Fold this protein.
Amino acid sequence: MASTSASVDLSPLPIRTRPLLRFGQLFGGLALYGASMGFMVRAQLGLDPWDVLHEGLSERLGWSFGAVTALTGVAVLLAWLPLRQRPGIGTVANVVVIAFAVDSTLAVTPPVDALPGQISLMVAAIVLNGIATAVYVGARLGPGPRDGLMTGLHARTGWSVRLVRTAIELSVLAVGWLLGGTVGIGTVLYALAIGPLTQFFLRFAAVREKKDLCP
């Protein structure tokens, strides 16, 4: 089998393999990912680890948040080279769809001030992010820059998605915090939970080849 609780085949598949299902899964997952980011911002209980890093670098370099996000994206893509990762349609769609989805979510979702509501929104955002990551990465049309780092390390080391994703998130969080990025309870919860959540949902969301579906 290509998928187990510890190992899921996330290598790209030819575009002609179940295209309607996979493209729907790709764009739906990316839209949900952007929505989850917007909910995380509105919860006001801490940024996700990558955005902690972006904020810290922005303050240190004096660059805009968007420019720093682009910079880290390029740097992460360069890290793909020794991992032999290849970009795909999903890599490009990642940038466009998520940006549109997060802006749309922020436009229609007001800030939440009551603590119970903030906690509920934060938890929902983290779970939704795990589902969305599994859905769009599982389409096997090419991950985004940061998720490609996860899938590349997963493939090259044989470590579980849970372990790889958690290690990346905690490392990024530590660097961002040292650079002065804002950390909250939501940040820590996200860093610890996103790896296990992503691995759990990948078991259901990862598209398999026909040969992998045979008993």
